[in-house]
Amino acid sequence: MVGFATATYFITRNILLDRQEQNFLEVVEDHSIRVEEFLLTSEATYSEADLISRLRDFISELSSDSGVQVLLRYKDNIWLSPNPLNLNRSALDPQLIETVSSGNSSIMRYEFEGELQQVAGVPLAGGRLLYFGIESTQNTADILNLLTVIIFVGSIIAVIVTTVIGGVLIRRSFATIGAFRRAAEDIREGSIAPISEPVDPDFEQLKDSFNRMQRAINRRIEREQQFALEVSHELRSPLTTIIVSLETLKSYSEKFPGQAQQALELLAVEVERFRQLLLDLLEISRPPESIILDLTFIDAQKFMKELLGQDVPIVLENSSIQFEGDEKLLSQVFLNLLRNAQEYADGATTVNVWREDDAIFFAMEDRGPGVEDEDKEKIFDRFTRGSVGLNRGKSSGTGLGLAIAKERVRLHNGDIWVEDVNSRGGARFVVKLPLTQPMTKSSDTTNIYSESQML
């Protein structure tokens, strides 16, 4: 804006000055021709005194007709003007006089008696007569000064208006971007809901596209959940038959040869893994909105001791820490962490519990090889066990335990992550939960949980 205003000023200034200078030079050229002709025709006819008088009258007529004042120097020392008192040699710049005296035409702009003026000098009649035309440019300067003020004030007003309008537009745009950002964060957290907030009209089409994408994702997730449920239910009956048959075979295992007993043991491990996988599939297929949290205040020390027994030491910073949560769902979280430690790290070594501000922290440690940095986020995804888990061929893990734990923690408005115990190895799974829940989930519940417990 400032650059545009500055460019406008200089362009206008150059146009005005160039136009005035061009007109001025045309008048000067006309004057110099006429004055030289008058001199050449009059010198032989009149005496010097009469010639000077006639020249003064002639330039008076020229000045009044054109508006350009004329000042002449005749024979080096005679200065002529229509009004010698107001216009004489002092009105000229010495450098201009010197240039024209040397036989060269010249034009200058300078200030004289408080006014800007442009002066042109032309040598005539072989240098015997020097012509000087003088024109005031003060009016043009005043116009330019006024234009400067107008442009300056206009620029300030334009900047203020642009800032205000731009601020409003930027706030609207940021509000719209904020709506998309919150929607993206919800998707990252697993909650895929359409954008219901009003957005800038320019973003309305993008909002519609975004909402269509979210609805398509929801439909696909629902189909996948329904497929998992249907497959799990269909597998429940044959799995029950297999388990009963396997128990029958185990009762006669002593009569089997060694290789058959080994095969039976491997079959038992795989069937148990398959049963756990089916349970996890049923559990993780439950839509989060279908779960009602049965919130109660839980004593942290009593809860962890009843859950883990005497096998894992529990270190509490304060034995009277209480927090609000669904005891059944949180039991799943810590049992899954315990099972994960048993599968991949030869069991948990300790659980530390402490309070910070309005949150309670649970940290389950193990002596395993730890978790690679590139796996610390991925192991909470479904069917992901990390590079260590993939190398443990005898593991019965399903790759769903940590994903279920993350979902249950998220339902409690908490967070879960893994970090290194120390540089020598070991993993520490940390669960952060608020001491009190900000809201209670409310929706129709299903019987999936109870059905999964029947397997």
Brief overview:
The protein has 455 residues and is α+β, with helices and mostly antiparallel strands. The chain has helices spanning 2-42, 48-66, 94-101, 138-188, 204-251, 258-284, 300-308, 327-345, 386-390, 401-411, 448-453, and strands at 69-74, 78-80, 106-112, 115-124, 129-136, 295-299, 314-316, 322-326, 348-356, 359-366, 415-422, 425-434.
Question: What can you tell me about this protein's structure?
Answer:
The structure is a single chain. The protein is rod-shaped, with a radius of gyration of 49 Å. The strands form three sheets. A five-stranded antiparallel sheet has the order 2-1-5-4-3, sandwiched between helices. The chain has helices at residues 2-42, 48-66, 94-101, 138-188, 204-251, 258-284, 300-308, 327-345, 386-390, 401-411, 448-453; strands at residues 69-74, 78-80, 106-112, 115-124, 129-136, 295-299, 314-316, 322-326, 348-356, 359-366, 415-422, 425-434. Among the domains are: 2-143, PAS domain (Beta-Lactamase); 293-439, 2-Layer Sandwich (Heat Shock Protein 90). Mean pLDDT is 81; it is low at 390-394 and 440-455. With 455 residues, it is an alpha+beta fold. Helix 1 (2-42) runs antiparallel to helix 4 (138-188) and helix 8 runs antiparallel to helix 10. Helices cover 54% and strands 18% of the residues. It contains eleven helices and twelve strands.
Based on helices, strands and strand pairing, what is the structural class? alpha+beta
Helical fraction? 40-55%
Largest beta sheet: strand ordering: 2-1-5-4-3
For the secondary structure, the number of strands is 12
